Inverse folding.
């Protein structure tokens, strides 16, 4: 037995939780956790932080696990050592450290696409805190650059909270990152963060607020055109919810113009827009038609065709990501509005399977809510009933 194993068993006993339940909640294999608990496998700090979060500990697991600052991502050993030294002594920050920080963040964004938001919360929170400290204490000549990375980390952490349903925490993080982005004059990041606040308004069912924030996100011509494109698409969706087809058409045209300008300046694309692609923008257009379809059924077939084309145009990584799989729910909704029960069930079932594979509780919850709507629309339909069984 090890100190880590002893502490883990103590916390499990206090919480009345089994090792199998801990494995389920933390998204780790129970056999692996058993080996860690018995001292046959050495825990890393990421595992310790995740188990500490699930068990509601006070950091004792992290302390007994030992190790240096919590960084993850694929970095050469020299960069890992450089980051560890800079974390313990921020005066050591240099341009190579800043580049390494950006590399870690890029790796985390891509990792989140593969494994979902929940497992990324602990490492992202830890690395964001370290970066904040570096920004405060780094040499003056590099402070703005490190603060820019800190703002990007705040944005990423906000997204993780938003995607796991913690909207109030996400909004606070977006606001803090917005202040940092304004301090360093990053117009593109400011535009993105204002647009993300619009996403939160969308989830709260406030289309008028979505329009206001999306308009604000498009205001600064210094921002990368791709930022304006996604905000114009978001504004179009809000107008669609409000039933204003003319405003939808106008904003989709604005989005097309901005997308074309972004393509001409691809080398200037900010790193957080790595997911922008023709398929992504096609899906956003389809979502606008989907919401117009609730007012005018003539748009439903257009929504189905556009959403299908956009999803098919996504690359494999995007299709298998948490956010990419969520697009299947929009397609299922479009089929439901058009009265296509078989296609609606098939798309929703595919989304639910992705949710199970990724371990996404939020995507699974959305699948269940959509199924409840289907059950009201088609009570007693055998395929809808089978979907309900699969979602239990």
């Amino acid at each position: 037995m090890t100190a880590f194993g002893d502490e883990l068993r103590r916390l499990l006993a206090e919480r009345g939780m089994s090792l199998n339940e801990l494995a389920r909640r933390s998204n780790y294999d129970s056999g692996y956790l058993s080996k860690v608990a018995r001292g046959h496998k050495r825990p890393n700090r990421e595992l310790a932080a995740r188990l500490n979060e699930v068990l509601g500990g006070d950091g004792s697991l992290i302390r007994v696990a030992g190790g240096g600052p919590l960084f993850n991502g694929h970095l050469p050993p020299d960069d890992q050592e450089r980051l560890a030294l800079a974390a313990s002594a921020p005066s050591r920050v240099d341009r190579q450290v800043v580049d390494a920080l950006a590399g870690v963040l890029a790796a985390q964004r891509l990792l989140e696409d593969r494994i979902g938001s929940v497992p990324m919360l602990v490492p992202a929170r830890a690395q964001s805190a370290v970066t904040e400290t570096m920004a405060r204490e780094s040499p003056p000549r590099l402070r703005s650059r490190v603060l820019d990375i800190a703002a990007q980390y705040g944005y990423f952490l906000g997204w993780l909270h938003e995607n796991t349903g913690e909207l109030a925490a996400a909004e606070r993080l977006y606001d803090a990152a917005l202040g940092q982005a304004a301090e360093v004059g990053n117009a593109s990041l400011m535009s993105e963060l204002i647009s993300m606040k619009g996403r939160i308004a969308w989830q709260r069912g406030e289309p008028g607020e979505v329009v206001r924030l999306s308009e604000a996100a498009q205001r600064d011509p210094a921002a990368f055109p791709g930022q304006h494109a996604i905000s114009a698409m978001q504004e179009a969706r809000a107008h669609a919810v409000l039933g204003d087809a003319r405003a939808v058409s106008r904003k989709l045209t604005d989005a097309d113009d901005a997308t074309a300008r972004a393509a001409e300046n691809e080398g200037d694309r900010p790193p957080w827009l790595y997911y922008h692609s023709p398929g992504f923008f096609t899906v956003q257009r389809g979502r606008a038609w989907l919401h117009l379809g609730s007012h005018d059924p003539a748009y439903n077939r257009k929504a189905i065709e556009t959403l299908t084309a956009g999803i098919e145009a996504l690359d494999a990584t995007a299709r298998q990501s948490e956010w990419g799989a969520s697009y299947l729910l929009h397609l299922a909704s479009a089929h439901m509005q058009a009265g296509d029960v078989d296609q609606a069930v098939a798309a929703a079932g595919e989304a639910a399977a992705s949710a199970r594979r990724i371990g996404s509780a939020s995507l699974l919850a959305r699948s269940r809510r959509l199924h409840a709507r289907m059950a009201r629309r088609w009570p007693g339909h055998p395929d809808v009933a089978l979907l309900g069984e699969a979602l239990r």
User: Anything to note?
Assistant: DSSP finds 21 helices and no strands in the chain.
